[in-house]
Prior knowledge:
Blueprint: E1 13-18, H1 21-34, E2 40-43, E3 53-54, E4 67-74, H2 80-89, E5 90-100, H3 107-116, E6 121-123, H4 146-155, E7 165-171, H5 177-190, E8 196-199, H6 207-213, H7 222-227, H8 232-236, E9 244-247, H9 255-261, E10 267-273, H10 283-294, E11 299-303, H11 315-324, E12 349-351, H12 353-357, H13 360-373, H14 379-387, E13 391-397, E14 403-412, H15 417-424, H16 434-441, H17 445-448, E15 452-460, H18 469-483, E16 488-494, H19 497-505, E17 510-517, E18 524-531, H20 534-556, H21 564-573, H22 582-594, H23 599-612, H24 622-633, H25 638-645, H26 650-668
Parallel strand pairs: 1-5, 1-6, 2-3, 2-4, 4-5, 7-10, 7-11, 8-9, 9-10, 15-16
Antiparallel strand pairs: 12-13, 13-14, 14-15, 16-18, 17-18
Amino acid sequence: xxxxxxxxxxxxxxxxxxxxxxxxxxxxxxxxxxxxxxxxxxxxxxxxxxxxxxxxxxxxxxxxxxxxxxxxxxxxxxxxxxxxxxxxxxxxxxxxxxxxxxxxxxxxxxxxxxxxxxxxxxxxxxxxxxxxxxxxxxxxxxxxxxxxxxxxxxxxxxxxxxxxxxxxxxxxxxxxxxxxxxxxxxxxxxxxxxxxxxxxxxxxxxxxxxxxxxxxxxxxxxxxxxxxxxxxxxxxxxxxxxxxxxxxxxxxxxxxxxxxxxxxxxxxxxxxxxxxxxxxxxxxxxxxxxxxxxxxxxxxxxxxxxxxxxxxxxxxxxxxxxxxxxxxxxxxxxxxxxxxxxxxxxxxxxxxxxxxxxxxxxxxxxxxxxxxxxxxxxxxxxxxxxxxxxxxxxxxxxxxxxxxxxxxxxxxxxxxxxxxxxxxxxxxxxxxxxxxxxxxxxxxxxxxxxxxxxxxxxxxxxxxxxxxxxxxxxxxxxxxxxxxxxxxxxxxxxxxxxxxxxxxxxxxxxxxxxxxxxxxxxxxxxxxxxxxxxxxxxxxxxxxxxxxxxxxxxxxxxxxxxxxxxxxxxxxxxxxxxxxxxxxxxxxxxxxxxxxxxxxxxxxxxxxxxxxxxxxxxxxxxxxxxxxxxxxxxxxxxxxxxxxxxxxxxxxxxxxxxxxxxxxxxxxx
Length: 669
């Protein structure tokens, strides 16, 4: 058995000190003094010189690393996602020190202040010494925990398995899954199994695994990287086809990348933490594992439960989990309460985040339902749900007041005419106006001026699904929107045929399909929309007719890889197409060439314009003429277009196309 770090008997310390210039100097001296013999870092925007820095926006890139002491700037603009990640970076016996500034206002800030007063959070007196970490270091030949031994024994024979097999290893953070995988790889290599490769978002994210392969290396681990670690790209291109492939920290990779990696070896291991806020979050379970089963992959799921990097019952883990409700579960239904009659006669009640924040049990039930139903729920989502005054929360409770349905509606103001034009031209992307901006991007300027409600989340208890409760909640949302004077109600989600069928049956046909796959779900996004006011119906019908006119070009070009069942569902929902408008096409061509109108939305107009004005190409060089025809008429893929244009990426090709069209427009008037 190879040596790996032991289960730590040490809990971690959570320390809070008030932020000030004097305190920062004191904390800076403390962390600098620890740096000589300990692994330390400072997570924030104002890191002192000489201290290893982690920026809040980049915190996820440090997943998998371990520190003895970490300083976190808990300022007025708290970064909830970064704080949750920071807690997982501190090893057993270590210290997480919060530099606490005056918190902002709002329900979440009040929640954070309340949690800071709990006994788990130690307060440092101004004159007292800051504590040193008591981190445990591996010494000699160390043993696996009981849970790790069970998983190790189960997976040990994987290289010799006679046929395809996929292991899925999941665990909360701190359970030692990466070090366990390192132990397996080391054992396999000792037994002569050389065709083993490990991939991940980056080598740094699987540092514990690489350290097991080379115990003398602290962080670099160049030797095992050279022989074992492989970046995802060579695997995706087929340049490397290992006998056994381990994908660690799998949720940090987009779902469509995971799907591609699943076919690169017959024996695979996908390992990830189960925190729904990291990477693709629960998309790993909701989308990826479900797709593997549909493909017929033989799956064996394994789980590590007991902590290894810190002691069971660690106060920091418990504090973070409760602060952000990371362990919130679906509310339990009474035995036999599985029928639709559980909500008979019940109505959806609407509350704001401030009111929900005062009901901890109700808040946990809401988060549990939403987390179970959606690809990713982050700590920052909790803050937004509590603090955003534009958010309405609809709650449907069944018998016994058990929460069985939740819908979140976000109010989005309409766009002023000038702003709508700027959105269409690709010059502006106003925050908080998603649905109006979608309409503006399709040229629906009048519709874009109307106020909208966007369904940002909807969830029904898993035991009560397919009983009409979701549609009932949509009807309640429509009544709520009409009472408040909104003209539109819509949603955006990862498009699969089943979801599209649900929304269309409820009266929400698709308006748009995104041109690129989402990293979290691995799907193209779909936007559905329903008018709530009579005047809006005609305007939305006009937009949908233009989408129907342009759909064949998109389907043959940027949406050529769209799943056939999704494409068929969209096609069946489309109305008769609008007639071409040469003047509008000319305006759109000019907006692409001379402004920032994106290529894919403009592609149908570009193709119609070139078809009607072939003489416009006469002023172009032969190379530009071929490039323009390849991109617009033939819809070549971007790698081929890059090769034609001599560019390294899409942005360079777009610049070349804009220059060519500017010349063509000048020649054709």
